[in-house]
Design a protein that fits this description.
By secondary structure, this protein is of the alpha+beta class. Helix content is about 35%, strand content about 20%. It has a 5-stranded mixed barrel with strand order 4-5-6-8-7. A hairpin with a 2-residue loop joins strand 14 and strand 15.
Length: about 375
């Protein structure tokens, strides 16, 4: 399975994840959604379902395959929407030896009374049987989601066999999960840290969106910071023109300084996302818009077309890092990986190139 990563432009900042109650809960998601969740670019091991940050899940399903090793069980769990691998580590219960048979001679009270050793042995056998499942039995598993060897799986923190002869547990589960989707998972998260006003993060996000809209409306290919600076003026809070005699002046940056700082942060975000880049770094700050830089698109396409003919890359295609190195030599040293990924996505959408495997590309 090819690992999917969240678009940095859409991913909410990690400092706001805790405001979403789904983040701290075991999410009852369908297996099909767990398998296709996008992974965070900020924190590996965190995944997103419709912008809800998720790292641990709760799954109920039928065991369709199993493997047992000295330290763990590996169960394939099918909930009706897909199959996911569940790695269930054995606890000390499987490693401890049962009490010596001689202890069974001891009893509390009269003959036929409560035998502590025998009851403890029964309890351990029951616990073991709840953790060792066969194909066709019902398993409930909870734990964090991991991607190992390009395969999505659950690292179980809790797992046990579910006895459900009349399917009461499964019916209740099938009624609860769709309701959770409607009331929670399918609704956008409310990540608003300050109800009184916009946080600095949200202001920068609005600024980047304004600049992106400007690129689309005006078909911008190149620009300088002063070309877009005035667009951000409405985001700067108005300052009072005069102050009464009994008010002391408030220390802080002026509106002009705030505007310049906001513009600087917005341009940095756009560069980190690969939306813009500076072909040549000089005092004359000129930014190229990646999506409309035809020279960059041609350079990337030429590198892939020429090198994919070589015997070394004929089978799998050119790796993205090889393409990045070649484009930096041929076009500009300032092309970032994020910029290249946007170009590759555009070329693939236009059927100029095709991805043969994860991070490998070849020309038609």
């Amino acid at each position: 399975m090819q690992r999917a990563a969240m678009d940095p432009a859409e991913e909410p900042p990690s400092m706001l994840w805790g405001l979403d109650p789904v983040f701290s809960a075991f999410a009852r998601l369908y297996v099909r959604d767990i398998l296709v969740m996008t992974e965070s670019t900020q924190v590996p091991g965190i995944y997103f379902y419709k912008l809800h940050p998720i790292y641990k899940v709760d799954v109920l399903g039928t065991v369709v395959y199993k493997r047992e090793r000295d330290d763990f069980f590996c169960y394939g769990v099918d909930d009706g929407t897909g199959v996911i691998n569940c790695l269930c580590w054995k606890n000390d219960l499987f490693k401890e030896e049962d009490p010596a048979p001689s202890g069974a001679q001891h009893s509390d009270g009269a003959q036929g009374g409560f035998n502590l050793v025998a009851e403890l042995k029964k309890l351990r056998e029951t616990q073991r049987s709840r953790c060792r499942l066969e194909i066709g039995e019902l398993l409930r598993v909870r734990g964090p989601v991991k991607t190992s060897r390009q395969q999505r799986e659950i690292m179980a923190s809790t797992f046990y066999k579910v006895d459900d002869p009349v399917m009461a547990v499964q019916v209740a589960w099938m009624m609860d999960v769709p309701q959770l989707y409607r009331l929670c998972y399918d609704k956008p998260p409310q990540l608003q840290p300050d109800a009184a006003g916009d946080s600095p993060i949200s202001v920068v996000g609005k600024a980047t969106n304004i600049i992106k809209d400007f690129f689309k409306q005006k078909s911008v290919t190149r620009f300088r910071p002063y070309d877009v600076q005035d667009l951000l003026q409405p985001l700067i809070p108005c300052q009072p023109q005069t102050a009464s005699a009994d008010q002391e002046p408030v220390a802080g940056p002026s509106a002009c300084q705030q505007l310049r700082q906001l513009l600087k942060e917005a341009l940095q975000v756009l560069q980190d996302e690969g939306v813009v880049y500076r072909k040549v770094k000089s005092q004359d700050e000129v930014y190229n818009v990646t999506a409309r830089d035809t020279d960059l698109l041609i350079a990337v396409k030429d590198v892939i077309r020429e090198d994919s003919r070589r015997e070394k890359y004929a089978e799998k295609g050119c790796h993205i890092l090889h393409v990045l190195s070649a484009v930096r030599q041929r076009h500009s040293l300032n092309v970032s990986k994020a910029t290249l990924q946007l170009v590759l996505k555009s070329l693939e959408c236009n059927s100029d190139i095709v991805s043969t495997s994860e991070d490998h590309y070849t020309a038609f």
